[in-house]
Specification:
Elements: H1 9-25, H2 29-39, H3 58-67, E1 75-80, H4 85-101, H5 104-118, E2 121-128, E3 131-137, E4 142-144, E5 158-167, H6 179-190, H7 199-214, E6 229-239, E7 248-255, E8 259-265, H8 266-270, E9 284-287, H9 301-328, E10 331-333, E11 367-369, H10 378-393, H11 410-425, H12 428-448, E12 456-461, E13 468-473, E14 484-489, H13 491-511, H14 516-529, H15 534-555, H16 568-575
Antiparallel strand pairs: 1-14, 2-3, 2-9, 4-5, 5-6, 6-7, 7-8, 10-11, 12-13
């Protein structure tokens, strides 16, 4: 059975959005493939410049060098706006549990590496099987509007998540999908047209798989035998339908560019919040460390390294081939000499090999060595290229643990190393902001659908003992009327700011002694500087407050009428709390 072109206006709109988003992103595909294959130490040979399959690992060397100086995952602490500390503890424990269940530290590594490799990275948040699922997505699976604000993903008029492959047989198990559209999809896959996908989908899939094809995966584009696989695309589009007060995001599930299986407001899919958050926010985030106002698909560090790496590979390939050919010992010979058929001689110590030379002639008239010039001087040029790359990316030789030939003082080395580290740590402001948005979506998912979340078991050590206690918590245990605010800080910013803050506080405490509130701030800063967790800081400060109250209650009965004659200085010193 052959199906005619669909006249569904919504399906046409989805196709146009996909085509527009794909054309906007397509220019980056070739660069992404080259970045990835160079990082994986794989090159494509050609007859002109890259005749040898050799690769100088400049791409991996640069990215791994810079990656070790990137800050760790930011610290996030939720603070209850109703000042309910018990619920606040439960909320923060559930956040930690969610990060552990999603392997957040490893996903954070993938997240930063994607920014290095492709210049842009994405993550998705959703509720699956009773828990919040956090996933780093491939940038080549996401399409956005070309006119969106690069600093705000929610400003895009549409967002499309492509390349979601599921068996055709499982579609009917989803109660939200249109059964009539599924039947039409089955008929389509039974027809001859079903063997050929839409042009845009096919081209997108080929370019996505090109990286794995270059890595040697021969069946990357082959279909899965024994099962009909359908490619789903999730479309999120701003629309105003009949009955809507204003524009909001609608979620469509489209299959193989020819069937719309589901259409619902995103707020109905996820759930409603008090501020209707999901009407104008996607459950996706994106960030880049080289944000450009004109272009959403900006460059990554790998784009800076790609061209120098290709130049080095070409030169190194020529150097390898040159050395190999010089070792062949190839010669020309005079083919006009009658009866002379030169043979290959096996070299032996003190060997002599006869070559016929005419009367009055010279051996140089009979044979001549093929001249293959030495290309070893290109090593200096290659070193120059590597030096330029180090300067442009900040991955200096000192950061790689390599000693430079020039004699410099220890201070100069430390200064250069510190400046190089500061360059790469500058990206922390971008992914710290991204983690703040992730924490925001985490809170909104809980607020929108607490009934979809299962209770979890939390194990925690006692406050004043080493015993471990078990508590089962659910959203009802930490949700309050006013909700939560998010406190976030990156590790490198925290360390640098804390050091300066401690130095300033030392001077202030020395000039204003005995001020209880100042001492409390000073002690809290010292504890945070010692890398104690916010909960540990609270426990220590609570114990410190109890000790001060106990000391004050013990000294109070000793003060009577006769104490009125005490000097003011003695009164001030008596009220001074113990120094940290």
């Amino acid at each position: 059975m052959e199906l005619k072109e669909s006249t569904n206006p919504e399906l046409t709109m989805l196709r146009l959005n996909k085509e527009s988003g794909y054309e906007y992103r397509k220019r980056r595909h070739e660069a992404w493939t080259e970045n990835y294959t160079l990082y994986r130490d794989t090159v494509q040979i050609n007859r002109l410049t890259q005749r040898q399959s050799v690769n100088i690992p400049l791409m991996k060397q640069t990215i791994r060098t810079l990656f070790k100086d990137v800050d760790d995952m930011p610290v996030i602490q939720f603070e209850n706006l109703d000042n309910d500390k018990q619920k606040e503890i439960f909320q923060n424990e559930y956040w930690k549990w969610t990060l552990e269940q999603n392997n957040a530290e490893l996903q954070d590594v993938v997240d930063k590496k994607q920014d290095f490799m492709f210049g842009r990275t994405f993550d998705q948040w959703q509720i699956v099987d009773g828990r919040i699922k956090f996933t780093i997505q491939d940038p080549q699976d996401i399409l956005v509007d070309r006119y969106c604000d690069p600093t705000d993903l929610d400003s895009s008029r549409f967002l499309i998540h492509t390349h979601i492959f599921v068996p055709l047989s499982v579609l009917e198990k989803n109660e939200d999908y249109d059964k009539a559209e599924i039947r039409k999809l089955k008929l389509f896959h039974q027809s001859e047209q079903g063997l050929i996908k839409a042009t845009t989908n096919e081209q997108m899939m080929i370019e996505k798989n090109q990286k794995m094809i270059d890595m040697g995966l021969s069946d990357a584009t082959d279909p899965v035998l024994g099962e009909t696989i359908v490619e789903l695309s999730m479309h999120f589009v701003y629309r105003k339908e009949e009955g809507d007060e204003e524009e909001q995001i609608y979620q469509y599930v489209e299959a193989d560019d020819m069937a719309v299986l589901m259409k619902k407001p995103l707020e109905k899919v996820i759930g409603e919040t008090s501020d209707n958050y999901w009407r104008n926010h996607y459950n996706y985030n994106s960030w880049a460390d080289d944000v450009d106002r004109q272009d959403f698909w900006t460059d990554g560090i790998a784009d800076t390294v790609r061209t120098p790496n290709k130049v080095l590979n070409a030169w190194f390939s020529q150097l390898v081939e040159n050395r190999t050919m010089r070792n062949f010992g190839m010669h020309y010979y005079n083919s006009s000499l009658e009866g002379f058929q030169p043979q290959t001689f096996n070299p032996v110590p003190w060997g002599w090999y006869g070559i016929p030379v005419g009367s009055g002639g010279s051996i140089s008239e009979v044979i001549q060595k093929v001249d293959i010039p030495d290309l070893s001087e290109s090593l200096d040029e290659m070193q120059f290229i590597m030096g330029v790359t180090e300067k442009s990316t900040g991955a200096t030789a000192t950061q790689q643990g390599v000693q430079t030939e020039r004699q410099v003082t220890l201070g100069e080395v430390q200064l250069a190393l510190g400046e190089a580290k500061e360059r790469i740590k500058g990206m922390s402001k971008f992914y710290t902001h991204a983690w703040k948005k992730r924490a925001e979506k985490f809170l909104k998912l809980i607020e929108a659908a607490p009934e979809k979340l299962d209770a979890v078991k939390i194990y925690k050590k006692g406050r004043n003992s080493d015993n471990i206690y078990l508590r089962e918590i659910a959203p009802k245990d930490w949700m309050t009327k006013s909700g939560y605010t998010t406190r976030i800080w990156s590790q490198d910013e925290k360390n640098s700011q804390d050091t300066k803050s401690i130095e300033k506080l030392n001077a202030v405490v020395a000039n204003i002694p005995g001020n209880p509130k100042l001492m409390e701030i000073y002690q809290r800063k010292l504890l945070e500087f010692a890398d104690l967790t916010p909960e540990e800081v609270s426990e220590v400060m609570q114990y410190q407050t109890q000790m001060q109250q106990m000391m004050a209650s013990q000294s109070q009965p000793m003060m009577g009428a006769g104490d009125m004659g005490a000097t003011p200085q003695a009164g001030i010193m008596g009220a001074q709390p113990p120094q940290a």
